[in-house]
Design a protein that fits this description.
Elements lengths: L2 H4 L14 E5 L3 H11 L12 E5 L4 E3 L4 E5 L4 E11 L15 E11 L10 H4 L5 E9 L10 E6 L2 E7 L7 H8 L10 E3 L8 E2 L4 E6 L3 E13 L3 H5 L3
Parallel strand pairs: 1-10, 3-7, 4-13
Antiparallel strand pairs: 1-2, 5-6, 5-10, 5-11, 6-7, 8-9, 8-12, 12-13
Length: 241
Amino acid sequence: MNAALMRIPCEVAPFSLSGTVYGTLLNHRSALEAVAGEAGKPPYNALPRTPVLYLKPRNTLAAGGDPVEIPAGIAELAAAACLGIVIGRTACRVSEGAALDHVAGFLIVNDVSVPHSSYFRPAVRYQARDGFCPLGPRVTPRASIVDPDALVIRTYVDGALAQTAGTADLVRPAARLLAEVTEFMTLSPGDVLAAGAAAPAPRVRAGQSVRIEIDGLGSLTNPFVAGVHPFALAVQVAAGA
């Protein structure tokens, strides 16, 4: 198990946060609205009709307090705050009405990425660098959250409020998202499905700290530090490639 996961307390027993972390693109209304003008153009041609998922592999996982490294040659990173849905029971083709019965609990996800302009098949190098997915501060049991679709999410940069969003603005609320995702893939105990972040995500520079709060889930804080390894595609990223 990833060392970061071993440091994340779980209030759900018996349970292990040991699966795969999936991100969901364009599942917050603000994120969908941000690309609406480009969605009708090639290569997209239309807004997505089903959930658009991507992986946050094990090398990206971090816990609260872990430093997030900003690659040399990159001025800033995007810190996208979202609700993490933690799977407790195998979920395959579940109905919307029964979807939350397969959830062990919830946690905070800081979905870090190198800023990029294209959402069409986002490059792994923008999303999956080491430490680009802090999780925590704990897995809060599902029963402790009355309504996962009515949570306020606040992001602070160096203590100043940088963004306020909410799960009420998800295009697919938690149960519907789980139902649609499990229609084409099985989610296993220990998996985490990030429900989707608001746009635009706050930008963070080296030397700054990000704290994310979600109602009922506590807070997740991570410092951002300067990296020592050059990022070969810095020029392309800066140009929006």
